[in-house]
Amino acid sequence: MSRLHIENHLVSRIGWLRAAVLGANDGIVSTASLIVGVASAAAPTSQVLVAGIAGLVAGAMSMAAGEYVSVSSQSDTENADLAREREELRTQPEFEREELAQIYVKRGLETGLARQVADQLMARDALAAHAHDELGISEMTTARPIQAALTSAATFSVGAAMPLLMVLVSPASMLVLAVSVASLLFLALLGAIGASAGGANILRATLRVTFWGAFAMALTAGIGALVGTAV
Fold first, then answer.
1. C-beta of residue 163 within 8 angstroms of C-beta of residue 182
2. Residue 135 carries which DSSP code?
3. How much is the pTM?
4. 136-167: per-residue pLDDT in tens?
């Protein structure tokens, strides 16, 4: 007898992977940009460090709150759709059965077989069948607000700690260059790790995050230098 083959699909990682990559990327880019901008304004290292720490704390809280609100809105929408579907199954089961059968017909099943499949799936769990095949809601992709918030806050903090560490170990005269170069390397590594975990093209992901990180730091460095000169 052949052994059961169990597949581990990459889509099952989409919830936490999205929040983790977004959090770490934002942590590196925003904190490094803040540090580079303040340092370019000729601020002393102690002030640059304070600004970076403040950016880490504020950013982590902002990421957590933003992810929680955003994913909660998605969860509310899913729950509203499920509640409506539950009521329709209670009041008009035959219509819902035919609706589900027609979904399978459009996917290529013969009408009689499609109705048999709909009957068997609805007999087991009608709401789950309609949630998956009519609404597109599944266990792998369902909204998890708390998981997204905690993941984003934690990964933002880890990402932000990297450019902060460079402030501590770099001489003042090399601060802007050291933070910029190290942050770009961190971003390239993050892009590669995220692409590898998600099964995407590693080179494309690495170039994408590195380019936008360099753009953000260059822009804030320029603004910081202008403000520092004006003040």
1. yes
2. S
3. 0.68
4. 776 656 667 888 888 888 989 999 999 999 99
